[in-house]
Amino acid sequence: MNWQAPHVVVRSGEGAPRSAKNRVQEGTARFVGAALVALSCAWLPCVSVAGSLTQAPYGVTADGHPVTRYTLTNAHGLSVSFLSYGGVISELRTPDRHGRMANIVLGFASLADYEKFNGNIHFGALIGRYANRIANGRFTLDGQTWTLPVNDPPNTLHGGPSSLDAKVWTVKPVESPHGASAELSYVSPDGENGFPGTLTTQVTYTLTDDDVFRIDYRASTDKPTVVNLTNHSYFNLAGEGSGSIERQTIQIAASRYTPTDSTSIPTGELASVAGTPMDLRKPTAIGERLRSSFRQLVYAHGFDQNWVLDAARQESNAADKSGENALPRFAARAVDPASGRVLELYTTQPGLQFYTANGLNGSVVGTSGKTYRQGDAFALEAEHFPDSPNQPAFPSTVLRPGETFHEVTEWRFRTQGAAGK
Is pLDDT at 9 greater than 60 in this prediction? Predict the structure, then answer.
């Protein structure tokens, strides 16, 4: 993707080095509208470009890789901050019904804490090469069995240890007619964490002036492989560090789910949610179901299951089967009645993992200096089904040379009044 060097707007007092001016390419073009451009923090400490993007150094990893923090901001002041480390969404600031802004995602206050703790928690991270679980750390593809490192015994979870969530991604600005936008890319070498093929992944973050945060996932390979990508943000619509989300409501547009065994591996059944605590087709206070004796909730210590989304994948052009023009459809809605914040999730993915932060136990300190406990947040992970490589009846996650994996997820934000209007 081609782009011209931007017209740089340096905030008063930031003291950009004079030499930076000489590094901007000749023919610099002023940015038009809400299009996004940026410069590397390697030579410019902190830059604001066209009011859409800011960036600043965020430290250096233990193995010496510089990390940058980026912030996308729209015309209404809604902002999304993310790191080049793991593509982590570290802050997401939205207004309540009175216009008061708050960060609504959990995270850590330092890069060191992300490196130390996030391999197990995955706050805000891009997940792959295979999101969710693969049974017993192995799968068979085209007659060959591939063995993966087991990091959630006896299974492989979220691509294994030190997967995409722990890599430093390359970030570049991209021009978009929809709003501020940046592309993150990472090349996973053949055999990384046991997966076949060199996987080239591009993820585009876009924040629109309609208060929509869009995530475009694309991946290609040079050998047959399996791929499943998602984002693992933890939401608390009352605000990060606000405590329990039990009074917040959830609605999931799914009449079936994939039951699991005690190790969270699907049995292969697509079971009806009717008459069970898994029926979230109508808005339901999260706390109403968390302490149910329903076996699936006992296994997971709360919600941590995959729902089979009802809406079929829709194409804007019926003749186009590439997925490039797939239309995200409604999957879930979460509401905090106290603040009025509403999050709606639209996606092209076939499944949604709803997780109530069952693994948080007060042992980590978050962004605002408060400890996080079980039930302090929820995750909505739009993705393919768990263990699909070993489940032939599930939608395929096989990617072959010449094909492109492409999925889209949108988080749409708004507020409602005290009466739910």
Answer: no
